[in-house]
Amino acid sequence: MELIVSTVKGLTENLLQKQTTDYDQVIEKLFSEVSGLEDFPKIPNPQLEECAIQLWNWAVTKNVGTTISKNLKAKVRHVACSLLYCCEPENPTEGVIRKQILMASKTGRTWLDCKNPQVADNFLRLAVKSLETLYAQLTSRGDGAADITSSKGDVEKDLLRILSCQAESALIQGNNHDAVVYMQRCRDMLQRLPKDTSYLSIMCYNFGIDTYNLKKFEESTFWLSQSYEIGKMNVKYAPGSEVQAKVLRLLASVYLEWDCQRFQEKALNAVSLANKEFTSASGLYLKIRILVRCEASDDHIRAGLNEMLESKVSLEVCLSTVKLLMFEDREVLAFDYLKRVCQHFESSPDLGTALVLHIELLLQKGRELLAKQKIEDIITGQHYSEALQWYNYSLSFFKAGQTESNSAKLQRNRASCFLMLKQLEKAKEAIKEAERCDPGSIFTQFSVYKIAVQENNVEKAVEAVNAMGRLSKSPSASEDGLLVSENAASNMLSLAAQIALEFHRTNSRNGHEGSGELVWKTPRMNISGPHRSQVFALQKVSHQSRLTAEKRTEEANWFRKIAWNSALQCESCPDRMRDFFVLSYQLSQLCPPDRTLLMGQKTCLLMAAAASLELCRKSPHSGQTEDLTQALEHIQICWEVWKTLKASGSFPKDPTDTLLLLYEFEARAKLNDPKVETVLESVLELEHVEAKVLETIAALAMEPPAHYPLLCKKALRVALSLHRKQPQADLARCRKCVHSLIKLSLPSGVSEVEARVLEEVWDYYEEALSVIAAAPDDFPEMETLWLLTRAWNTGVLLYSLAQYPEAERWCGLAMSFIRHLGSLQESYETKMSGLYTEILDRLDRAKKNLIMEE
């Protein structure tokens, strides 16, 4: 025995030395030595007891900044607890027994975390035995009734925790019967310990998940039912209705997967109860899924669909439900519901997604005529009739001679609606009234121009363009201060060119090439050279009635290349570059499509999107929406062109997918579009995603006005993982990723201090330590100081919140960085060692000399 004491003492001292690095060997030797103590009689030994306390404290707090596995931690606790029990006196004091309970229960819990339930059981049984001894000792006292009652309550709390661990151990070992017995004892104790209701309910829920993952459906339904029932026992201390609903949804899903027909009623009851507890989109969708799988009648499913719409779920969930119905051959229900969804979300900016799905489903089912009609309805039915009614209603409020400019705006809007409804005469009447009210508006002249193009009235169109040029130079004639620069006029002229091109394409498709088309005369205007080229291109390409199709293609192709080259010359002017690339793309649509032309279209649209994003970066936040929306439009068209190209052959190493996703992520992030998360998922699904792409995504996620810290962290975590997988990791980029992750995650105040958050940041700090260890000489000293300071401040914050074990843990982490400092090491070591010692002393006093816990 003396030899064992001497050996254990020596190994303990060795482990506690700061210079020690071979923790594994020392711990394994200690573990081996203590394994034979069970054969010796229990003999009080102060030296062994001191070793037990020192080892325990080391396992709790002195391993900060070092790499120690859970298994080694369990072995240190195993040794400490075994030593304490080996030294147990014949009549242990209450203090000794409480130490035994703490050590045995914590050691058992740690072995459970290491997935070693057999060893855990031994320590959990020791803890229960010590609890029984303590309870008997408390009961035998005859004084201090209030204190005894309080102490008995503490014993029961500890017993409930240990019994729940024994239930978990039994379940891990496949002994469901024993787990049920242990949990029933815990449940019986809840009458006296109501505050543990939530803890026990969530533990049963976790048991339900574990058994479900093992496909033990019967056991899973039992534990999930237990979780819900326990949660109902005390509403005040229950986990909450949202968690209860989550439990019931999983219970319904288990019944569904187990045997849908056999447990149809139970599954429906569970999900209905879940939706009463807390209505959620996932619960409503699950109900439809159960009804469909159980072959319920159309009326029952329709009732569930009505409930979904009444609960204001998102359009995305509704469309997922439509796809589910189609997959399960409920075609009539699917189309009926889709129509109602489109009506319900008619004012949503995402309605187009539903309309496209409707068309796709019609085509999938071979209903080409219906699909064609639907497309035509979408194009022509833009609510212009309803808009006209509102414009007419608004116009009735104006009196003659008053607010002429507002009246002109309404008349122009009426004219636009009439044009879309192909009511040309009514449009002319409206714009004539607009001219009377406000002849000096460039918008009015633009409307005159649009009608002249529709009528093929060359003289009137030229007059309107000339008028637009004159008005752009007169600030006094501008409307609401919007048109005061040459750029504004050139934008209007660019749009005029696009209208003429579109008008020509429409006539060509309708076989009207021989009719008298719009023939331009060069308008006398003082505009910049590049934009004169646009007008000239419009003049040249529109005057096609005397040309063969081959010659017309040649002309369009020539102007397309001119626009392309002009765009390349406008590198310092993103708006003009964008306009020229768009014009080049539009001109290319007049040419027969082939692989080369499609490649050119793809590049034009990519460059136009990039220019729009560049404009957005240079403009104030308030003016970015239009540029971002334009960028998205270019991106969406480019996706279609790119899909057509990819269908024609392979494009190895082509970066188009990556570029389009990067551009789309930036645009949607800055527009605060909820689809931005979906874009990130698409990036992660790329066959070969690069770390630098994810780092760019992370930066864009936080570039104002975008603010998506969670997406930023997700991208950085994947980027860091990719760096780590490289044969030669780029440690500088790893360091930057870790720095950003820590900066984004560290709590900045009391309200953000959560155990989950702290554990997440702790993982990042461990990653930082591994980067330092890989190349200590290359790690910047100021970066090390930054890590040290942030960890120390976190420890101080936790100390102020009386979270003493965590405070010591974080201050200790900060201390571990001192040895990695260079020239600053000596000064910081002197200053911080004193502070650290002071904090440890305060912690010891605060904990009243009790053994420190995590």
Protein model, in words:
It is a single chain. This protein has 854 residues and is mainly alpha-helical. Helices cover 73% and strands 0% of the residues. The protein has helices at 2-16, 23-34, 46-61, 70-86, 94-113, 117-140, 145-172, 176-189, 197-213, 217-233, 241-259, 264-277, 281-293, 298-310, 315-327, 331-344, 351-364, 368-380, 384-395, 404-420, 424-437, 442-455, 458-472, 486-509, 529-542, 549-568, 574-588, 595-618, 625-647, 656-670, 676-684, 691-701, 709-725, 731-745, 755-774, 781-800, 804-816, 825-846. The longest helix is centred in the N-terminal third of the chain and has 28 residues, at 145-172. It starts with a helix and ends in an 8-residue tail after the last helix.
Overall pLDDT metric:
83
Radius of gyration: 37 Å
Q: The biggest beta sheet, please?
A: none
Label the overall shape.
elongated
> What percentage of the residues does DSSP assign to strands (E)?
under 5%
Number of strands: 0
Total of DSSP H or I helical runs spanning 4+ residues? 38
Q: Ends: how far apart?
A: 32 Å
* Helix content range: over 70%
Structural class: mainly alpha
